[in-house]
Amino acid sequence: MNTAFQNPSSLFDVSGKTALITGASGAFGTVAARVLAAAGCNLVLSAGNEAALRIISSECEAVGAQVASLNVRPADEETCSRLGNLAVERFGSLDILVAASGMNKVAKIDAMAPADFENIMDANVTHSWLLARAAARHMKEQEQGGKIVLMSSARGLLGHPAGYTAYCASKAAIDGITKALGCELGKNNITVNAIAPTVFRSPLTAWMFEDDDKARGFRDGFLSRVPKGRLGEPEDLIGPLLFLVSKASDFYTGHVLYADGGYTAG
Fold this sequence. Notes:
The chain is an alpha/beta fold. It is 42% helix and 14% strand. The chain has a seven-stranded parallel β-sheet with strand order 3-2-1-4-5-6-7, with helices on both faces. Helix 3 links the parallel strand 2 (42-46) and strand 3.
């Protein structure tokens, strides 16, 4: 009998793997860092917020993870190459990329400066593409395959009336990159997938969870379209992430996995 049937949980074992996580001080990046540290990965963590990066690095080390950190954003080819090289030099391989860095600025089209649009597209699309490019090079050279996880959003599929043209466009582009790279890198045993959450709890969305008129008004309207009837919690991202970075997803590539309580299904 196939050993996966005898020990199915082994499909999710990522212990000893090396993961590069960018945006490690952000909402999804901290989830990824904590989960993969607890799962036994070696970590290369990158973030622009130095103080927050030190905190998440210390948390990961406290659960036994080996951590290398760089206070940088993946803003250019040289930096992305540097991050990939650090993983290989420090830990001997680069097995997992979680590109969790990005940004948004909400403004309606007549109020958004072209420079702001370009900055959002750079942070969310170009930087993710550069990271995937750098990681794929190492994964090809290692000839052991690899896992690339990009950060999308329900807004890559759905529009929004409140001034999300840049953000929606950037996440739709991530969906396209995910599908294209899934096709391109499949023969190298490299899977490329994206996680696409809707609203989940983070420092930026904390107000949405409060018990006041503003928060209740938002939730009443939003949750009318969420079959599960609640907003997302950080732990809702753990299962999708472990699936996409482990052997369990070896036959899955080019997918956008919606962590949205059914929001995009209706």
